[in-house]
Amino acid sequence: MEIGGRSVMITGGCGGIGLEMGRKFAAAGKEVLLVDAKIDAGMALAQENPAISCIQCDLSSAQDIEHKLAGKSIDILINNVGISPKFDAAGQRVKTWTMTLDQWNAVMATNVTSFFLCTRLCLPGMMARKFGRIVNIASYAARIGGYQAAVHYTTSKAAVLGFTKSLAREVAPYGILVNAINPGRIETPMTRDVPKEVSEGLIPQISCGRLGVPKDIANVALFLCSDLADYMTGTAIEVNGGLYVGP
Ligand SMILES: NC(=O)c1ccc[n+]([C@@H]2O[C@H](COP(=O)([O-])OP(=O)(O)OC[C@H]3O[C@@H](n4cnc5c(N)ncnc54)[C@H](O)[C@@H]3O)[C@@H](O)[C@H]2O)c1
């Protein structure tokens, strides 16, 4: 399996799925840039692996993205950052009828607008080099609604799928392929606030009989950026062990 390009940028790169993708792309010989608000875990990985570097950046801020990420030469962009607030400050489940506009906007800024802004920064270089791979991380929640995730999260992930399709059509003539992955339930810090019995209660609905782990997603990201996927664009791959099987 050949993976084109030299440099990879992974947003939310120091979280559960992002770090594992960083490890795998570095093992495949790529220079990996992990972009995250909290970079401790990424810095620890970078110490073991000189191909990996980190930038601290608030991806919900257009200014921070522009200030810290402009001018990077990126061949593979993994738009992976995401937040899924499930509880408010008082510990109550976030419901549509109690959600504030600020709560809604915070999710959209991180989960959708950062994808647009990071993509916009990377496209001119990709177009000039006539090569690019963009992988957008959405969610099974976009297909079936969230079990625990609130409406802002699910809406943001559906938006990522629309973004993926339109962008794919636009940039294919420049040698840039754009695809999405819809992870199922993956064990990472994001799902730690879901009670164990609730997560494990999903297992009977998962045909493969287990919750997902970050490498399940990282392997598919690697595949989408390889020559094995040279004829794929505008699609979304379901990686959920059979939690959702449908059109
Ligand atoms: N874990 C799951 O079950 C699951 C399921 C479906 C989709 N996903 C998606 O997979 C992607 C990765 O999720 P994960 O499970 O690894 O979550 P995670 O919480 O482990 O990692 C997310 C990372 O994003 C970073 N981040 C959050 N807000 C940021 C901001 N404003 N600026 C910069 N960095 C910020 C966090 O610091 C964290 O390192 C997300 O898009 C998520 O929605 C996860």
Report on this model:
This protein is of the alpha/beta class and 247 residues long. The protein has one domain (7-239): Rossmann fold, CATH 3.40.50. The protein contains 8 helices and 7 strands; from the N terminus they run βαβαβαβαβααβααβ. The protein has helices spanning 16-27, 40-48, 62-69, 101-129, 141-144, 151-171, 196-201, 214-224, and strands at 7-11, 31-36, 52-56, 76-79, 132-137, 176-183, 236-239. Strands 3-2-1-4-5-6-7 form a 7-stranded parallel β-sheet, with helices on both faces. α4 (101-129) packs parallel to α6. The longest helix has 29 residues, at 101-129. It is globular and about 50 Å long. The protein starts with 6 loop residues before the first strand and ends in an 8-residue tail after the last strand. The model has no long low-confidence stretch (mean pLDDT 96). The structure holds nicotinamide-adenine-dinucleotide. Nicotinamide-adenine-dinucleotide (NAD) binds next to α1.
In short:
The protein is of the alpha/beta class and 247 residues long.
